[in-house]
């Protein structure tokens, strides 16, 4: 199943969306370490990873927008989801899954 995700732009986008969401939540945890316990080391590492994943998310979002002819509203909601904690997980369920189901139905026919 994971090899199928990497073979399509939507699958790659979904993987990066999941990783970006996880890094966002982890960044919140490392902020506590940084400010409450004066330990900025983990925050730096997670911050760089989150920044990289966010940029990759936006780049892949543009590619999915073009390939799957997403509306501007759907693309905007996917972008906003990356700014809200748990947003990419909700977007996976509400936005991205529709295209996955449509793609799977086309492959079965």
Structure write-up:
The protein has helices at 2-6, 9-36, 41-67, 72-81, 87-108. With 109 residues, it is an all-alpha fold. It has one domain (2-108).
Blueprint (SSEs and pairs):
Blueprint: H1 2-6, H2 9-36, H3 41-67, H4 72-81, H5 87-108
Helix pairs in contact: 2-3, 2-5, 3-4, 4-5
Give me some keywords for this one.
single chain, 5 helices, 0% strand, 109 residues
Describe, in short, the structure shown.
This protein is mostly helical. The chain is built from 5 helices and no strands. 18% of the residues are buried.
Question: How many strands in all?
Answer: 0
Structural class: mainly alpha
β-strand amount: under 5%
From the alpha-carbon coordinates, what is the Rg to the nearest angstrom?
Answer: 16 Å
The string of secondary-structure elements, in order, is HHHHH
What's the domain count? 1
Uncertain segments: none
Helix content: over 70%
Structural shape? elongated
Q: Tally the helices: what do you get?
A: 5
Mean pLDDT: 88
Largest sheet: none
Tell me the span between the first and last alpha carbons. 19 Å
């Amino acid at each position: 199943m994971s090899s199928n995700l990497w073979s399509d732009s939507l699958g790659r986008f979904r993987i990066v969306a999941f990783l970006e969401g996880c890094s966002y939540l982890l960044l919140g945890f490392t902020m506590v370490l940084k400010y409450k316990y004066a330990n900025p080391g983990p925050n730096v590492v997670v911050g760089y990873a989150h920044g990289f994943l966010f940029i990759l998310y936006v780049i892949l979002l543009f590619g999915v927008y073009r390939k799957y002819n997403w509306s501007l509203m759907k693309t905007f909601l996917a972008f906003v989801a990356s700014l809200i904690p748990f947003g990419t997980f909700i977007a996976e369920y509400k936005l991205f899954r529709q295209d996955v189901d449509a793609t799977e139905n086309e492959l079965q026919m």
